[in-house]
Design brief:
This protein is α/β, with parallel strands linked by helices. The chain has 2 domains: 180 residues, Rossmann fold (3-Layer(aba) Sandwich); 161 residues, Rossmann fold. A 7-stranded parallel sheet has the order 3-2-1-6-7-8-9. Strands 12-11-10-13-14-15 form a 6-stranded parallel sheet, with helices on both faces. A two-stranded antiparallel ribbon has the order 4-5. The longest helix is centred in the C-terminal third of the chain and has 18 residues. The radius of gyration is 21 Å and the shape is globular.
Length: 362
């Protein structure tokens, strides 16, 4: 098949640090190349892939040269123009248009978008199917009008739970995110520390993870992004507990840097309170043989085989109790769960079936 992969442009592929949507798009692209498909990857400058890469902008939005990115928006009397930093909305429109113009010319059998809602408006204007992976985008209510207007287009949910965010869309399949197993080696021997990895945000349960660790007498390592809108939450609910001994903040780590931390952790704490669609953290941790202790929100009941690859809980009290029973979880069972259900080749095969089904129907 001739497949156009429309990746986000916030980070180059593969992302060196944060960039979960980009990581999924990269893993899928490489998996489809392995299956023998002709893949054209539309992405930001600096992208590396075995697919045919079309760089639609010279830099990713998050790696744009700082001098240009931070340039003041002001009138320049010499040019007569309002000068300023690059406009991400303009760059993203040009990115989508580059793909859709080639799709309109009949170059592809299918276009696969990882771009929130931004490609949907072209879905009825091209001669091939436009498939969209949501990546949790339906969580944002302000985007619902666009989703509903194009609800007849084919959507792929990252978990069955994700469909609850907007049930009326035309879901043609659920395909779990997949990781490259070699990036997360198996480790059967664990240390005593617990780990929180992810955005340090209220819905991610960072403060609850601290409670669980403190009450269970375990050291907690924390890694992840502190977003500007959650700075007050971090300063009041998280930072006061970071002492470098009982609670240590490691910063925002790349997957390469996070892998050894996963490997030795006794468990990853996943005390979320929102419909997490399919976080890479839970997959990466279990690939290393590390169990999850998580709430019953989002996709966690789909990835956690209760008391086999982790524990499902409803309260902090229950989580503390489960920490004391981690020795019952076999690391090899965690690894096997990922190998059979959440590995990159499994994801690529799942999407291949989606494409084949849509092309057969058309």
């Amino acid at each position: 098949m001739r497949i156009a992969m429309l990746a986000p442009i916030s980070w180059p592929l593969p992302p060196d640090g944060y960039g979960p949507w980009e990581q999924v798009a990269y893993n899928l692209t490489e998996g489809l190349v392995d299956l023998g498909h002709e893949v054209t990857l539309f992405a930001a400058g600096g992208t590396r892939s075995r697919a045919r890469v079309v760089e639609t902008c010279p830099h990713a939005l998050s790696t744009w040269p700082e001098a240009e990115r931070t340039r003041r928006r002001e009138y320049d009397p010499q040019t007569g123009l309002l000068e300023g930093p690059p406009d991400g909305r303009v760059l993203e429109q040009m990115h989508v248009a580059a793909c859709m113009e080639r799709a309109s010319a009949g170059e592809f059998d299918v276009v696969h978008s990882h771009l929130h809602v931004h490609a949907l408006v072209f879905g009825r204007l091209i001669p091939c199917p436009l498939v969209s992976s949501l990546h949790g985008a339906a969580w944002v209510r302000s985007a619902h009008p666009v989703f509903r207007e194009y609800r007849d287009l084919p959507f792929v949910s990252l978990s069955d739970a994700e469909r609850r965010l907007l049930p009326e869309l035309n879901y043609v399949a659920t395909v779990y995110n997949g990781i490259r197993l070699d990036d997360f080696p198996f480790e059967p021997d664990k240390d005593d520390y617990l780990l929180f990895a992810g955005r340090l945000a209220p819905e991610k349960g960072a403060a609850e993870a601290i409670q669980v660790a403190r009450r269970s007498g375990r050291r907690l390592l924390m890694a992840g992004m502190i977003e500007p809108q959650h700075r007050e939450y971090y300063d009041t609910r998280v930072k006061p507990h970071i002492d470098g001994r009982n609670v240590e903040y490691l910063g925002l780590l790349s997957q390469r840097e996070l892998a050894p931390v996963y490997r030795r952790a006794a468990a990853v704490l996943f005390m979320i309170n929102w419909c997490e669609p399919c976080s890479m953290v839970g997959i990466e941790a279990q690939a290393c043989g590390t169990p999850l202790i998580g709430t019953r929100f989002g996709y966690l009941p789909e990835i956690i085989l209760d008391n086999q690859t982790g524990c499902l809980v409803d309260t902090v009290d229950e989580a503390v109790e489960k920490v004391g029973r981690l020795s019952d979880i076999k690391p090899a069972t965690c690894r096997q769960n990922i190998e059979t259900r959440f590995a990159a080749p499994v994801m690529a095969q799942g999407y291949q079936q989606v494409y084949e089904s849509l092309l057969g129907a058309s």
